[in-house]
Write a structure and sequence with these properties.
700 residues, alpha+beta, seven-stranded mixed β-sheet, 12 helices, 24% helix, globular
Length: 700
């Protein structure tokens, strides 16, 4: 009788558990959340690779791989090199890029800029594939080299932890700094294999394999907290990107607006500036607001990792800044590589910068390179001097500073230990504690909507970079297929074509080649992505970072040569039949028109002596029709400006903290005043909120 009673109690407990959890929607939410977090984990893993490489932590890069993981090098131009196992991978990277040793040195460099992801999760959620662009500045013992290409990588989840199972790097250009780079191997560049199509790239997280979602043990409150972390990460990432865009143009008022009233700036080797007045004086020490003729101040934000602290009101970012700086009128130019470790605060729901901490690891004259020249800048004096000296722990040679990592090693779970003669800095906060916030409970449906918005962020980044890769490969059918059926695309200098079929008819001339004489790369980086409330549309601002390569180093005016160009994308996106596509593609370029490599890339640029003209083609909306929006761009009204003149820089959003309206402000889709049928709302989609609304969290 006692045994029968125990069985009845056990059956009742199981029945009660089933009754209290018979929530298929919650199970689906938990599964979808896990898959979205998995995609983000892959991106963090790759960003960690870049951050560890910068500090020469090759052993800890090896530990990002499975125990039997592999690193494959080339196989298209030169014979395949294949390394198996963590130790062999670390040794290969250490030898090729680290000068044969672990750790960061004052005269060495191993900076890897790894961006433009196309990440695809497998249907079962247990593995993933990704493609990345990579640019490598490296060299030790007086040497300096530039190298670049693409990664096609595989990842796997082992016992809940994401790791590399295989990294395949296809080098595409290489050369000593003093000579400039050429195509890898000196011949044509083969098109690297792709793991994606224009359709699969627009589905970064495919529907799961058939079957019910497993029963979750998590409560709705626990799932909501994890979803909130994803949403807040998107807001903070956008804010970090916005800072970079404002800094590029020396928009000092907008930079100051991003800071909390008690915000601070720390610059390695210099000191600490306190409060908004201090931030403004630090910016003034860099130069007067606004770009004048011949000034270049590009500060690309790369390999950014975002973490949200428990309580949701505090966040950190860590990343690598590539500075492309110049005064062409003075025939001067510089490269700068810095690490930033920033702290953010949410005040009344609005994210702001509390601590901006940047540590320049390398600055060099563009004519000499980091193997021959290193510049250490002293602290400003006079009115723009720092308010306080550096904290004692940070008072070291800037080139040997390693800002503290903002998390544990993503695979081992251990603290990231530095090596060599470097010193860990910025390990304690400069300002006071930030109290935790409070999230109001939401329904399962609302939690799912919020999750869909973060998944949309990844979808937008995927399809954006996919467009860039197909352009790189001269595969017109590929890039045209990333456009929505009724979307529209700008061809620079010529105008817009409307509708995917029209774009294909106007631009597609047969299949893409298997090899190319050179590549004009289209990295789409530093996203500011604002997703609509229903997660079916979005706006996106992306930096166009454009290295180029050819069979020779080339001269000024050569299309394929060792050079850097730049531009800006202002795009809209839609979820069309379950696939993310580009609705509007607007590109402003070129903001850099380089001279020959031996002339310092951009440092000796002069105004053209002849009027600038560019080939045009028939289009549905011409640049001339757009009036002021295309003024001074080729094809638009007025004199055509080319670097070292400063082309106009348009913004589609107001300042995300203060609401300050930029001088050149285009919030609506470009061309929609001429063709209102192109508006998202006219096609069944929402126009996403502006940045200032999107920067406000529902949690306080």
């Amino acid at each position: 009788m006692k045994r029968l009673k125990s069985v009845v109690v056990a059956m009742f407990s199981l029945s009660l558990a089933w009754t209290t959890h018979a929530d298929e929607a919650l199970d689906n939410l938990a599964r979808d959340l896990d898959r979205t977090e998995s995609l983000r984990a892959v991106k963090t893993l790759q960003a960690s690779y870049a951050q560890l490489a910068l500090h020469g932590l090759w052993t800890q890069i090896g530990e990002l791989f499975t125990t039997d993981g592999s690193f494959e090098f080339d196989g298209l131009v030169m014979p395949l090199e294949s390394l198996q196992g963590q130790a062999a991978i670390a040794d290969f990277l250490r030898t090729r890029y680290g000068g044969g040793h672990d750790g960061q040195t004052a005269d060495g460099l191993s900076a890897m800029f790894i961006e433009s992801p196309i990440v695809n999760l497998a249907e079962d959620g247990g593995s993933a594939k990704a493609r990345w662009q990579i640019l490598i500045f490296h060299g030790h013992d007086g040497q300096a080299r530039i190298e670049g290409g693409v990664f096609e990588n595989d990842y796997v989840r082992e016992r809940g932890t994401w790791k590399f199972s295989r990294a395949h790097y296809y080098p595409q250009y290489d050369g000593a700094y003093e000579d400039g780079w050429t195509n890898w191997g000196g011949g044509d560049v083969p098109v690297a294999p792709r793991h994606y199509t224009p359709t699969t790239a627009g589905i970064p997280i495919p529907p799961p394999v058939v079957g019910k979602a497993p029963t979750t043990t998590a409560s709705l409150s626990e799932l909501q907290q994890r979803i909130d972390t994803l949403n807040e990460s998107d807001r903070v990432r956008n804010l970090q990107s916005a800072y970079g865009f404002y800094a590029d143009r020396k928009m000092w008022d907008d930079v100051v607006d991003l800071f909390a009233d008690d915000g601070v700036v720390e610059v390695g080797g210099q000191g600490v500036w306190q409060g908004k007045d201090g931030v403004r004086r630090w910016l003034a020490s860099i130069g007067a607001a606004g770009l004048s003729h011949g000034q270049l101040n590009d500060r690309g934000q790369n390999s950014v990792i975002v973490t949200i602290a428990p309580g949701g009101n505090e966040a950190f970012t860590r990343g690598i800044e590539l500075g492309m700086l110049g005064e062409a009128d003075q025939e001067q130019g510089w490269w700068e590589v810095s690490v930033f470790r920033n702290r953010f605060v949410k005040e009344d729901g609005v994210w702001k910068i509390r601590e901006l901490r940047r540590f320049p690891l390398m600055k060099t004259d563009v004519f000499q390179g980091w193997g021959r020249n290193r510049i250490t800048e002293s602290a400003p004096t006079g009115a723009n001097a720092p308010d306080a000296p550096l904290p004692a722990e940070d008072s070291i040679v800037p080139a040997l500073a390693v800002p503290a990592f903002i998390g544990l090693h993503p695979v081992t779970g251990n603290v990231v230990n530095i090596a060599g003669g470097a010193t860990l800095v910025a390990s304690t906060n400069l300002t006071g504690a930030i109290p935790p916030g409070k999230a109001e409970a939401v329904s399962t449906a609302e939690a799912a909507r919020r999750l869909a918005r973060s998944a949309a962020y990844d979808g937008v980044e995927n399809i954006s970079t996919t467009y860039g890769y197909y352009i790189d490969d001269s595969d017109a059918m590929g890039w045209a297929s990333t456009i929505a059926k009724n979307g529209y695309k700008e061809t620079p200098f010529s105008g817009y074509h409307i509708g995917r079929d029209n774009i294909i008819a106007a631009r597609v001339r047969g299949p893409g080649p298997e090899k190319q004489v050179g590549i004009s790369y289209h990295w789409l980086t530093q996203p500011v992505v604002i997703v609509s409330d229903d997660a079916r549309s979005a706006t996106g601002r992306f930096r166009l970072f454009q290295p180029r390569t050819g069979k020779t180093v080339g001269e000024a005016g050569d299309f394929f040569a060792a050079q850097f160009w730049g531009g800006m994308y202002h795009n809209r996106y839609v979820l069309e039949d379950g696939v993310w596509r580009i609705w509007e593609l607007t590109l402003d370029e070129p903001y850099i028109t380089p001279v020959a490599w031996k002339d310092g890339v951009w440092a000796k640029a002069k105004d053209p002596t002849e009027p600038v003209r560019r080939r045009s083609m028939a289009s549905d909306i011409t640049p001339a029709q757009l009036g002021e929006r295309e003024a001074h761009f080729a094809g638009g009204p007025g004199e055509v400006w080319e670097w070292p003149k400063i082309l106009p820089m348009w913004f589609s959003y107001r300042n995300p903290v203060s609401g300050r309206v930029p001088e050149l402000y285009q919030p609506e889709c470009v061309g929609c005043d001429i063709r209102p049928e192109l508006k998202l709302e006219a096609n069944g989609y929402e126009e996403p909120a502006e940045f200032i609304e999107a920067n406000v969290s529902p949690n306080r």
